[in-house]
Amino acid sequence: MILRKNLKSSLLETYSWFIVIPWSIVVACLLLLGIFHIQQNQQEMVKNEARANFNKDQSLRFWSSTHGGVYVPITEVTPPNPYLRHVKDRDIKTPAGKALTLMNPAYMLRQTMGKYESLYGVRGHITSLKHFRPETAPDEWEKSALQEFERGAKEISEFTEIDGKSYFRYMAPMIAKKGCLKCHGHQGYKIGDVRGGVSVSVPMAPYLANQHRQTIAYAFSLGLLWLLGFSGLVWADHGLKNRTRERDIAEAKLQEAHDELEKKVRERTADLKKAIEEHKHTGHLLQAAKTKAEIANKAKGEFLANMSHEIRTPMNAVIGFSDMLVDTDLDEDQRDYVSTVKRSGESLLSLINDILDFSKIEAGQLDFEEIDFDPELLVYDVCEMVRPRIESKPIEVLCRIGDNIPSMVKGDPTRFRQALTNLMGNAPKFTEAGEIEISLDVEEEKETQVKLHAKIRDTGIGIPKDKLSTIFEPFKQADGSTTRKYGGTGLGLAICKQISNLMEGEAWAESRVGKGSIFHFTAWLGKSEKKETRRFVPVSLSGKKALIIDDNLNNLDILRYFLESVGMNVVALTNGKDVLPAIQKSMEEQNRFNLCICDIQMPGISGYDVAKAIRSFKSEIKDIPLIALSSLMERDARKCEEAGFDGFLSKPVRREKLYKILERLLGEKKDKELKPKIVTQYSDREDMKHSARILLAEDNLINQKLAKMMLTKAGYHVEVANNGQEAVEKYTTSPENFDLIFMDVQMPEMDGIEATQAIREKEFDTIPIVAMTANAMKGDREICLKAGMNDYIAKPIKREIVFEILEKWIFNKNVP
pTM above 0.90? Predict the structure, then answer.
């Protein structure tokens, strides 16, 4: 037992080092890479300064040569240039008698270079292989550069030392212009000749100092990152050791019980033997007792074996299969372990993504796509993603879309969704009751662009006014305790801020402590060239009369707006007790309601009670179509159906789903004689799912099994092709049997690229083909799309991403 414990402890320590060492190597590599980039950046900056100085000197020379030189007063600093004695008007006098001398471009440059060096330490030198002045004679480096210019070089630069100090030397040629020939034409120069060059020597001291400061700051930040990761590993190692110790204690107790049971069995057996010797005439009783003891011993052995198996079975779930394991038949402990692995993996992935995104933003490397997407559907998807975080809290999730929102815009939907999800995802953490509302409107519009303004309002704890300016900074939250109580890295809002800036918008917040907060996000997006119908508007609803009941006024306003926008007459109530009188009054006035939409959760009389009361009437009131609304995560359609509801919708209500259910309940094609089951927002979707057929082209048996299991469990029909050739044959033989093709790229006989091209060449252009491949390097997605594929998924595949693809290319393919 002691040896086994020592072995386990040794394995745990080895496992810890296997994680610590790679983590340290990664941080060290990041440090080296960062230092390299800092050095490259400083070198590029000093090169730019040298070029700027050269361009300054050249601009001054060109200006002076254009005017044929400049006349200046003769002084000790600017005496007549002896090398211009061949110029007849070198020295002149003004009408006032003041003596002036001609300062040619080279003379002027030497004067300005000397002054610039005394002020800023940057040395400049004008030189030529055919020099007149000794001070313009080139040094060895300049002579080599001038020879390179005559061979066609455009510029020469080098990091070197001058007088024991580090300098960056840069030199570019001086090309003879027309104005230069006035002073240098007698030397035989022609326009376009290399007359010489200007060298610039920039001191490296300021740049090296700045490089040193940046390196220290970068190393310090990476040290903090390493320390954070190391602390996490130590915490995890400590927890694992505690669990191992608890398991060892349980095994010890089990062994103690085993020994005690063995002892009792031995004692009982001895008693039986003694009884047999003493009471031979009761042998049949002893035999029965012996049989019972053997049965008990066998049961004990089976129990110990099962317990040992359950305790010793390793829980080594792979994150890639954790989603699949959750749906299998697991006991409570196994389900908890798998959920823990999944949550931990997702949390770590979210943290890494935040850090990588923030690093990309800081480095200016965050890429943005330019594709068409529907902003209204995106906002509703964000609401759906946030709903599980609310759990059982008494919170209404509201979604308000402006009527002038375009049906399609051009931009990056992933980054736009990321920003809204971060802002919307914060609200449930800080809100215990009340409302969370997201609204989207057009703030400004140009000829080719539109500026969208998203607001996320909550009734949470609020943020102190003095903290509003800091919460969008990296690693900052409202106060220190928030990190411990609510979690989070403090990067979410910073990333939102940076995304908004990169999309030429802004992100800010306003709040009152104890009242709630409003977060704002704006972004400029392009106008889409797609000409599509604005929204699904069912004409059969126009002129219908609806009764809506909800105790939340904001939700009531949104619902009223949706219905009135399609021409319906709406009566809104906030209390369930007013429903029956309103319906009775409409019957008496011969202005009946065509349908009733009722919230389930209301104070006093619930929606279930309202439905039961309506259905209990013996008059025509009982036949009014009823639709249930709920903000709870549980969608108990059976309970709603038993109460008498005809349809069910969850909040926030998406207008297309609302219209479809209303049209289905009120449409002219509805069979009134046949009572159908309750209609929900998923009824049509479920019918489509169970009729959808998918062709999976994959040569790897394990990947086949994983993808097929994932899809068939979700209700899809899947047929497998083992290579690209087989996929082409199966689809082209029976194209009507498939709604979508998942295509691996690397396969024998014919790869996925060739298979896709073969299908498209046979003029099968409507079938969606989605790459499902391990090729996830930069450019692989573009290769797949160029070959004729419609979309791309990188392995390892995640169930949520696969279902989003199916939603996009099967369910929403024909949605107006």
Answer: no
